[in-house]
From TrEMBL:
<feature type="transmembrane region" description="Helical">
    <location>
        <begin position="29"/>
        <end position="47"/>
    </location>
</feature>
<keyword id="KW-0812">Transmembrane</keyword>
<feature type="transmembrane region" description="Helical">
    <location>
        <begin position="115"/>
        <end position="133"/>
    </location>
</feature>
<keyword id="KW-0472">Membrane</keyword>
<feature type="transmembrane region" description="Helical">
    <location>
        <begin position="163"/>
        <end position="180"/>
    </location>
</feature>
<protein>
    <submittedName>
        <fullName>Uncharacterized protein</fullName>
    </submittedName>
</protein>
<keyword id="KW-1133">Transmembrane helix</keyword>
<feature type="transmembrane region" description="Helical">
    <location>
        <begin position="53"/>
        <end position="72"/>
    </location>
</feature>
<feature type="transmembrane region" description="Helical">
    <location>
        <begin position="84"/>
        <end position="103"/>
    </location>
</feature>
Length: 197
C-alpha cells in the first residue's frame, strides 16, 4: 500500500464521524426548532400579556407536518401513507380545536393572559407526545415531554426570579467584601513593617 493510499484512507476515516454527527444534528434540527419556538411563544406571551393565537396554530400545524415528514420514509404503500396523513390530520385538528376553545372569550375571562400561553403549550406538548406514541417515534415523544417539562420550569422560574436576584446580590456583596479584605491585608502588613523598622 502506498503512502497516498494510507493518507487517503485516514482522511476518509476521520471525516466519517464528522459527517455522521452533522447528519445526526440535521435530523434533530426540526425537533430543536419546534421546542425553541414553543418556549419563545410562552416567553413572548408572558412579556407582552397578549395571547398569540396564530402563532400557536402555526406551531401545531408545523409539528404535525414534522410528524408526517419524519415517518413518511418508513411508511410503505399508498394506503399506509394515506392513513398516516389522515390520522395525523385528525389528531392535529383535534389539538387545534382544543386550543381554540381555550382562546374563546368566555374562557379567556377565567384565565390570566400569561396562563393562556402555558395552557396552550401544555396542550401542544400533550398533542406532540400522543402523536409520538401513535407513530412509535421516540424523538417526537421526547419533544412532547420536553415541551411539557418546560411548563412547570417556566412557572417556577417566573416565581423564583426574585430569589435569584436576592441570591445574586448576596453573592456580589460577599465577593466585594472578600475582595476589599484582600486589598487591605497587604497595605496593613506593609504599614506594620514600616513601623517596626
Amino acid at each position: 500500500m502506498s503512502e497516498t493510499d494510507v493518507s487517503g484512507s485516514e482522511g476518509t476515516a476521520s471525516s466519517t464521524p464528522q459527517s455522521r454527527m452533522a447528519h445526526f444534528l440535521w435530523e434533530q434540527l426540526p425537533y430543536v426548532v419546534a421546542l425553541v419556538l414553543a418556549v419563545a411563544g410562552v416567553a413572548y406571551t408572558n412579556v407582552s400579556h397578549q395571547p398569540l393565537v396564530g402563532y400557536w396554530e402555526f406551531l401545531a400545524l408545523a409539528i404535525g407536518v414534522v410528524c408526517v415528514v419524519t415517518k413518511w420514509p418508513e411508511t410503505q404503500g399508498k394506503d399506509a401513507q394515506l392513513r398516516l396523513i389522515w390520522t395525523q390530520a385528525l389528531h392535529w385538528i383535534a389539538v387545534l380545536v382544543t386550543m381554540n376553545i381555550m382562546l374563546m372569550s368566555g374562557v379567556q375571562q377565567l384565565l390570566p393572559t400569561p396562563a393562556t400561553g402555558l395552557v396552550l403549550l401544555t396542550l401542544l406538548a400533550l398533542g406532540t407526545f400522543l402523536a409520538g406514541v401513535s407513530l412509535l417515534s421516540l424523538q417526537i415523544s421526547f419533544l412532547g415531554l420536553a415541551m411539557g417539562v418546560t411548563v412547570p420550569a417556566i412557572s417556577w422560574l417566573k416565581q423564583s426570579v426574585f430569589f435569584f436576584l436576592l441570591g445574586a446580590v448576596l453573592l456580589i456583596g460577599l465577593g466585594i467584601t472578600f475582595w476589599l479584605r484582600q486589598d487591605r491585608r497587604p497595605a496593613t502588613a506593609s504599614i506594620n513593617n514600616q513601623m517596626e523598622a
